[in-house]
Amino acid sequence: MKIMTSILLFLIIFNGCSDKAQNWVILFDGGSVDQWRGYKQNNFPKGGWAVDNGALKTIVGGNRVDIITKDIYENFELVLEWRVSPAGNSGIFYFATEESDYIWQTAPEMQILDDSAHPDGKRAVTSAGSLYDLISPMEKSLKPVGEFNEARIKVKNNQVEHWQNGKKILAYEYGSNTINELIAKSKFKSMPLFAKANAGHVGLQHHGEEVWYRNIRIRKL
Fold first, then answer.
1. Mind listing the domains of the chain with CATH numbers?
2. In angstroms, rounded to a whole number, what is the distance separating the alpha carbons of residues 15 and 66?
3. Using the 8-state DSSP alphabet, how is residue 188 labeled?
4. What is the rounded CA–CA span in Å between residue 171 and residue 159?
5. Tens-digit pLDDT profile for the chain (221 aa)?
């Protein structure tokens, strides 16, 4: 037992050192929420989110407040794991600002979803992994509902990639004519601040259903 404990402690220390060497910042370590606050709030919304078995979890029936990182990011790589309850819905936002009433009025979103039971799963452009309502994911593979999936978002010099469970599922150029044309045909066309910021907060959505996020880390590129 002592040997196993020593090995586990070594792995934790080694992984932590490796993260630091690669300039990773731990946004959520399974306990502390110090890196997060509520959207347009000064503090973490404990009435809407809780720490549950090493994961950040939404509280159903609680205060539906999206959470954002305290820091702002421009070029970055974000990695986390997520799972949803049956018919669950959430999203990962980036380039978020607080100039509008709601985070989705400024920030692009990587959709988090139970494709099999939620209505949004019937449309590829709003299914899990999509750039919500703008670009459909390709060649994706989701784990069964209740299991954790890995999401990765990379942004470097306006080149954006969404990854799911180790596979790149979409890519686009932020601010390009192509993406602006897609926005002009979408629900975001009446939102003048949508996808305009070149840097912003990372956000996690409280859509009302249960969602869990864990092992959240980011590094600036």
1. 26-220 (2.60.120.560)
2. 29
3. G
4. 7
5. 455 444 544 545 555 556 666 899 999 999 999 999 999 999 999 999 999 999 999 999 989 999 999 999 999 999 999 999 999 999 999 999 999 999 999 999 999 999 999 999 999 999 999 999 999 999 888 999 999 999 999 999 999 999 999 999 999 999 999 999 999 999 999 999 999 999 999 999 999 999 999 999 999 99
Nearest to 133, CA basis, from 125, 141, 124: 125
Instruction: Look at strands 25-28 and 159-164 and give their pairing.
Output: unpaired
Burial of 6 per CB tally in 10 Å (0-12, 13-18, 19+): exposed
SS3 at position 48: coil
Q: Where are the beta strands (DSSP E) in 70-199?
A: 76-84, 89-96, 109-113, 149-156, 159-164, 167-173
Chain-centre distance for alpha carbon 43: 19
Query: How far is it, in rounded angstroms, from Cα 29 to Cα 208?
Result: 24
> pTM of the full predicted structure?
0.90
Q: Please provide residue 96's backbone torsions phi and psi, each rounded to the nearest 5 degrees.
A: -80, 140
Cβ–Cβ < 8 Å for 182, 135: yes
- Element housing 199 (H / E): none
Determine how many CB atoms are found less than 10 A away from the CB of residue 199.
14
SS3 145: coil
Quote the CA–CA distance of 206 and 113 in Å, as a whole number.
Answer: 12
